[in-house]
Structure formats: C-alpha cells, structure tokens
Amino acid sequence: MHAIITDGSISKYINYPKSLVIGDVRYPAKIFSLWTASELAAIGIIEVTFDDSNKKDEKYYTNTNQTYTYDSDAGTVTAAYGNATAKAHADTNWTQAQIDDGLAPTGADTNTVATRGLKYNFIKTIKAQAAGILQDTDWYILRKADADTDVPSAITTFRAAVRTKAAAMETLITNASNTAAIETLYTYVNTADEGDPVVMARPLGEFPVLGS
Q1: Which of 44, 54, 85, 93 could form a disulfide with 81 if both were Cys (CB 3.0 to 4.6 A apart)?
Q2: How far apart (Å, rounded) are the C-alpha atoms in residues 90 and 176?
C-alpha cells in the first residue's frame, strides 16, 4: 500500500500498483516494481509502514481503526492502531435508563441480560466441544440401552474424563477476573525447562484423547 503526498499531506492511497497521474504526468503501474523508494518519494509516493504494536487479538478486544500519519521530516507514512478496548468478560444487563428509553425488549428489567460476555460465550464453546467429543462414543451408550451390551471400561473412563475436564475448564473461565485473565487461559506458552525440547501448553489445558 502506498500514499500519495500532495502539498505536505496525504491526499490519496494506492492499494495496488496501477497507472496514475501526478501533476501533468501519467506514470505506468510498473513504477511500483521498478523504481526505488527514493525515486517514488521524489514524485510524492511513499509506501505505508504498518505498526501493529497496539493491535490485539480480536477474540478478546475491539481494535480501533488505523490512523495514517505522514512524517515529513522522516519521509514516512505510518498506519497505526490506537489503544484496543477489552470486550466485556461478564454479561451486562439492561440499565433502567435503557429500559425507560424503550431500548430494551418488552418485559426486560435490570436483571435481564442485554449482552453476553466472553465468559458465557467461551463456556458455551467448551460445552459444544465436550458434546462433540462425547458424540463419537455415544453409540456405546445407545447400544447399552438397546441391547444391554456392557460399555467397555475404557470408554466409561474416557467419557467421565471429558466431563471432568469440561467442568474444570468452565470453572477456570468463570473465575477469570477480567478479559486479560481469560486471554491468558487460552494463550500457549513454552512450559519446558530451559534446554529441554519445547512443550507448548495453555493454562486452560486440553480435552483428553481416547486411547492416549
């Protein structure tokens, strides 16, 4: 991506190489691949540098739009994010003001959930993941009910372990004090001692695998 500088400020953005007119001269698209950065800058074309240092994972945060800044002294154009806003980690209820203004659904009060937070959504995902894992062995349970065929102990143990792990995961999420704490639960880090092979793990842990 490039910016065109006119009279000391950004006048236009070029998202892909194309023919363009600057002043009274038409330049072909190939200048973007054949010319040096200095040659492009001489006619007012500067490649945009993207600064993602403030950008955060959008599963947990809402990022700002990028702001484009031209530094005439350095001859650079930088696209940078502002400070991200953490998404609500807990549910939020309708306020009395919103109810009075008619923004809430009929019958809602200040105990009615208006927006689900990250905790609710991540726990919902955990439940769905556990159900999906158990589904592969549900036929053992159906066979037991239909034909009174014993369920192998390994299957029973595995299914119990899945439920136990799901409950533990849900507890960790429920107890997370803020959005950053939830993000930490899902962040993989190297847990191996220095010098040992890398072992990536997350505080939330993983579901058991049948046969492992």
Answers
A1: 54
A2: 10
Instruction: Report yes or no on 46 lying in a domain.
Output: yes
pTM over 0.85: no
**Residue 50 within a domain:** yes
How many Å apart are CA 42 and CA 49, to the nearest integer? 18
Averaged over successive runs of 10 residues, the pLDDT of the chain (212 residues) comes to 96 95 95 96 97 97 97 96 97 96 95 97 98 97 95 96 98 97 97 93 97 81
The CA distance from 105 to 116, in Å, is 15
Give every CB contact of residue 86 below 8 A, 6+ residues apart in sequence. Answer: 60, 61, 178, 179, 180
Neighbours of 159 (CB within 10 A): 20
In a domain, 206, yes or no: no
What CA–CA distance (Å, rounded) separates 129 from 111? 29
Q: Is residue 196 part of a domain?
A: yes
Q: Are residues 111 and 151 in the same domain?
A: no
